Amino acid sequence: MMETVQGKRRRAFLLSDIAGAGFLVVVYMGIILFLDRNMYAFTTNLAYWVVFWCCGTLCSLLIGQIISSRPSWKLPVYIVVFGVFFLLLQQTHTIALAGLYGAICTLLLYFGKYLAKNIKIFKASFCVIPLLFLLFLILLPDTTVKKEWNEVVGQNSYSAYFLYFNGEKEIPVEAKAGEELLVKVQVQNENGGGYSYYIVDGQNRTLSQLEEESRELKLHIKKTGTYTIVLKGNGLRGGFDVEWQQRQQET
Predict the structure, then answer these.
(1) 107-157: per-residue pLDDT in tens?
(2) Parallel, antiparallel, or unpaired for β 225-248 and 179-189?
(3) For an engineered disulfide with 20, which of 4, 28, 82, 112 has Cβ 3.0 to 4.6 Å away?
């Protein structure tokens, strides 16, 4: 009987940790989406939200077990752990900024755990809501935003000019084994927006990537198939001029 009671308590604590971390993730996702208003960037970082949820749950569970004899240490330890997480995530963060984010996440996690322990429907909901939220984002269609997009497609060239571009544009290219694919990209950046471009294979694996200052991509084709030149823009106004050629590799 004692083991059954202890088992129920452990499951209750585990569900509270999961729900508390789920509440933290949902609130954090909502704040980021509201402030950034960039659905494309939001949906391309789904792995981050999963990791964030799992890390929040594990931290809550492990820290609670490790320092159960010193409850007064929980709050500072949580702040330090979340602060380190944000430092590792973005090394440009200062220690003070990472600590601030850590403190905010800790308070949200504490509040979520408190509600989960006292409101059963809250506990059940926030064990499931993050999964539904992530599933919704996975099933969303392409969230790329293009405004006043004009393009010219040639046999071995592609040009696009636009007022606003946030997302990605794919250009498929057929290439044969033994060839060298040479891609030249010129970018017109009229507003200082971000951009990048790279090549992926049929399994969506990035094979070549050069960003910002570079204008040329070179790829040695090892397997015949379709390769894709991916152009990405982040709030960019201007245009892309892309040219490519395939030639036999020099021996």
Answers:
(1) 888 888 889 988 989 999 999 988 888 888 778 777 888 999 999 999 999
(2) antiparallel
(3) 112
